[in-house]
Design goal:
The complex is a heterodimer of chains A (120) and B (290). Chain A has 120 residues and is of the alpha/beta class. Chain A has helices at residues 8-12, 20-35, 52-58, 68-74, 82-100, 105-117, and strands at 4-7, 16-17, 40-43, 49-50, 75-78. Helices cover 35% and strands 24% of the residues of chain B. Chain B has a five-stranded antiparallel β-sheet with strand order 4-5-6-8-7, sandwiched between helices. Chain B has a three-stranded parallel β-sheet with strand order 1-2-3, covered by helices on one side. In chain B, α1 links the parallel β1 and β2. In chain B, α1 (12-25) runs parallel beside α2, α5 (132-153) packs antiparallel against α8 (221-232) and α6 packs across α7. Chain B is globular, with a radius of gyration of 19 Å. The termini of chain B are far apart. The mean pLDDT of chain B is 87. The chains are: A alpha/beta (120), B alpha/beta (290). At the A-B interface, α2, β4, α3, α4 and β5 of A face α4, α5 and α7 of B.
């Protein structure tokens, strides 16, 4: 089955990938590919600015719909600067946590407050 | 209604002063609000975003706002960045190019905001020479703040921004303000926890904490910003509701304001002389991302 190549620059129309709405458009293309079991190559060629808001929408939310295995086997990123790769990785890790273990907000808050009490 | 304003800097006292200004004028409707700035001996120009939000709010309540007795130096800088153009003055040329103009954006103006940032930072020769990576990190930081305001404020009144470069101190300040529900209310509505205003800000800046529910995860933007500020030697200050939060030199300070600010202000200061490369200790392989 043919893989699809998604140019982020083409989808967004700009090197500035900062808006969540733009991330949503990328997500829709990626999700359609994964849904069909097709490989998707996500190219960041010519993209020079990324935010977590954009990446959460574009990539993070994939983990709410597809399995980690499906995403790992079907999605590749290309043409990305090393520090942007790190940002994507952090978004992915956060998303896995978010969807795997529904946010236990009360616990997180309590831990945060306890840290403060301990002077951390 | 007549009120006065003290010197406005990036400190807690100044956020107190702005919150007090809001407190004094919050009931004004169809009024003439005159703000005497005789005592405003200094005005950190990027804080125009914060006062601009307050004054816009007054305008929404059909008040006429007058700024009077501005010291010449303050009038000059606030004319250069276009702030006073909103209040009957004329914009004057910024000979040294140290201002980043005061603007208001609607929440759907992400792209317009992007263009503004490009125009103000990338295409201007007057801006400090920052390393490409520092410039990239700074732009990302500003976009994170803007995205945060768009997502969390739930405001219909827009987002206000302004900046200022201080060449002698190698500092670049940029402030974003909104007239939204504030971080405390957002945490209360979405997470159900009744934190104090300053605790709510602190909570929002921790990794993995988010008030976003549903399909799109969140909770990373402010954490990333804090990490960058710590490395850069800059500073991040946030005032929201009656909470004040400051991150500087790797330390966080929390305080309670006497009166609430009607929304959120995030003010970032970066050290433009920073030579950190922001390269990472270990580079990731693209195949290891997912």
């Amino acid at each position: 089955m043919n893989s699809v190549r998604i140019s982020v620059f083409e989808v967004v129309g700009s090197p500035l990938c900062v808006a969540s709405n733009d991330g949503q458009r990328v997500y829709e293309r990626l999700a359609a590919a994964i849904q069909e079991g097709r490989s998707a190559v996500l190219s960041f060629h010519n993209v020079d600015t990324l935010t977590s808001a954009f990446l959460n929408a574009a990539i993070g939310q994939l983990y709410g719909k597809f399995s980690e295995n499906d995403i790992r086997s079907l999605v590749q990123v290309e043409d990305m600067a090393p520090d942007d790769l790190v940002l994507v990785k952090r978004v992915v890790d956060t998303a896995k946590q978010y969807f795997k273990d529904p946010p236990r907000f009360d616990e997180v808050i309590r831990e945060t407050m306890e840290d403060q009490d301990d002077g951390v | 209604m007549k009120c006065s304003l003290q010197a406005i800097r990036h400190d807690r006292d100044s956020f107190e002063a702005l919150a007090y200004l809001h407190e004094q004028t919050r009931e004004c409707f169809w009024d003439e609000v005159e703000i005497d700035m005789e005592a405003t001996s200094w005005f950190d120009a990027d804080m125009c975003a914060a006062i601009g939000a307050l004054l816009y709010n007054l305008g929404e309540n059909l008040n006429t706002v007058k700024l009077v007795n501005l010291p010449p130096s303050v009038e000059k800088i606030l004319s250069k960045n276009g702030f006073l153009s909103h209040y009957g003055r004329v914009k004057i040329p910024d000979r040294w190019g140290t201002t980043i103009s005061y603007q208001r954006f609607d929440v759907k103006d992400d792209r317009y905001f992007s263009g503004y940032i490009e125009g103000e930072f990338i295409q201007r020769s007057e801006m400090p020479t920052m390393s490409p990576r520092l410039l990239k990190k700074f732009r990302e930081s500003i976009f994170e703040i803007f995205s945060n305001a768009v997502w969390h404020s739930r405001t219909k009144l827009g987002i206000f921004s302004c900046g200022q470069f201080f060449p002698s101190r190698s500092r670049l300040d940029f402030t974003v303000a909104d007239l939204g529900v504030g971080i405390r209310q957002n945490v209360q509505d979405h997470v159900g926890s009744d934190l104090s205003p300053e605790e709510a800000i602190d909570w929002a800046t921790k990794g993995n904490n988010t008030t976003k529910h549903g399909d799109v995860p969140g909770g990373l933007g402010l954490k990333l910003l804090c990490e960058f500020i710590d490395l850069n030697g800059g500073c991040l200050r946030i005032a929201s509701d009656a909470g004040y939060w400051c991150r500087e030199n790797g330390k966080t300070t929390l305080a309670r304001l006497s009166h609430p600010f009607p929304g959120t202000v995030a003010s970032v200061e970066i050290n433009t002389a920073d030579q950190n490369s922001y390269m990472l200790a270990s580079e990731l392989n693209a195949k290891d991302i997912f």
